Design the sequence.
């Protein structure tokens, strides 16, 4: 066992050394003095990705004498709203984490704000590390539509939406782990009957519209997903899937599965309320796993997959702004984050790694998280995210679904709100 561990460590060291050799580690202090790599990302220090990227920064500085990393933590919403302006200025970082999809990375690639890294991807073998389906969110055509064309980013982890639950609260009500949507509904009915609001929801940000999308996906197939996400065919926002999603979400509010007060709740507050044991269920992404594992002390918790298709994909990705002053250093840093050693660090902190080192995970729960992603990927059940197709669509989705929570719009009116900007963007991309 000890010898196997030593062999594994030696193999990881050789792999990392090879990646850095390709990167040209001599790019430390230049003729003009010490160099600085300006890095932005929005992962909290206790999150799996935050832990992994902090270790990557240490390794980068140790292998690049004379180079310092100037790291700035930005909020997801902050980067979402200001990236086009900042990246078109002298304040652009050298490398940053950015959201994937037509509305974000696709838009910036179309605007010429991101570096085409296709040659670097081939040179460093990142195209061999990432499966074709995972590559979908890294490549964009001239119209900024994902799935083909040039590489404008490197996904560095994976993610998917699942159902987190409080085992103690389920046991108190004698509820078994649901395997179907019908069983999940029955469980929530039982909690309501006991005077407990079942779902922790953040209606002021992404969680609420992801739940509505999950409900729509329960009546959809992959052709439906590709038509919506990649413009491969006509999209009808009043078809059976969208109608079911909107009506059922509104029904969940009426049945008190979702509190009307959740319309003003942010994602962070939703997660904290679940960690405090105030709600038995939270439908959200695997990015919460590390936080939950570190933060929940007073009860047992678990998770299970949403039945059928689920929102998910490669996670956010590293992009290199066109205005980066140290692109060579940016590529070196990305290479370190894609090494088996750092990917294992991410996995063991509760994230979903994209690079398989062949070593076992730190715990059975984390191994399950990884295996679930492999299952979803192998069965082609990953359906991306609802706000990706059009620029500005994130805010549209948030505001529209908030109206279902507050009861200020009907499901049909909400679907009309979603349809209008989507169709306008469709005209712009010429599909």
Sequence:
């Amino acid at each position: 066992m000890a010898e196997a561990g030593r062999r594994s460590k030696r193999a990881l060291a050789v792999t990392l050394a090879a990646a850095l050799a390709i990167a040209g580690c001599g790019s430390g202090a230049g003729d003009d003095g010490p160099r600085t790599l300006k890095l932005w990302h929005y992962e909290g220090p206790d999150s799996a990705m935050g832990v992994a990227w902090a270790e990557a920064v240490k390794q980068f500085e140790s292998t690049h004498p004379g180079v310092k990393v100037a790291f700035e933590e930005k909020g997801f919403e902050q980067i979402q709203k200001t990236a086009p302006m900042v990246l078109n200025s002298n304040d652009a970082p050298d490398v940053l984490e950015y959201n994937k999809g037509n509305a974000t990375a696709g838009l910036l690639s179309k605007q010429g704000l991101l570096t085409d890294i296709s040659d670097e991807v081939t040179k460093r073998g990142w195209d061999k590390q990432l499966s074709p389906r995972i590559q979908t969110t890294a490549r964009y055509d001239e119209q900024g539509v994902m799935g083909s064309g040039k590489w404008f980013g490197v996904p560095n982890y994976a993610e998917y939406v699942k159902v987190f639950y409080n085992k103690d609260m389920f046991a108190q009500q004698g509820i078994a782990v649901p395997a179907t949507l019908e069983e999940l509904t029955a469980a929530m009915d039982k909690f309501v009957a006991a005077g407990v609001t079942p779902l922790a929801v953040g209606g002021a940000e992404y969680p609420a519209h992801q739940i509505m999308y999950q409900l729509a996906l329960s009546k959809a197939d992959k052709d439906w997903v590709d038509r919506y996400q990649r413009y491969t065919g006509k999209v009808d926002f009043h078809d059976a899937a969208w109608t079911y999603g909107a009506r059922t979400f509104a029904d969940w509010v009426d049945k008190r599965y979702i509190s009307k007060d959740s319309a003003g709740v942010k994602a962070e507050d939703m997660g904290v309320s679940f960690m405090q044991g105030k709600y038995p269920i939270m439908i959200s992404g695997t990015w919460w796993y590390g936080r939950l594992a570190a933060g929940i002390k007073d009860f047992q918790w678990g998770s299970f997959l949403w039945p059928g298709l689920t929102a998910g994909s490669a996670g956010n990705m590293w992009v290199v702004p066109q205005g980066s002053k140290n692109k060579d250093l940016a590529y070196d840093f990305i290479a370190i984050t894609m090494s088996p050693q750092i990917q294992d660090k991410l996995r063991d902190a509760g994230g979903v790694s994209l690079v398989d080192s062949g070593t076992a995970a730190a715990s059975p729960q984390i191994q399950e998280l990884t295996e679930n992603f492999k299952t979803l990927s192998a069965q082609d059940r990953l359906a991306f995210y609802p706000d990706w197709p059009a620029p500005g669509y994130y805010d549209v989705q948030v505001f529209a679904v908030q109206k279902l929570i507050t009861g200020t719009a009907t499901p049909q009116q909400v679907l009309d709100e979603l349809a209008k900007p989507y169709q306008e963007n469709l005209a712009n991309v010429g599909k």
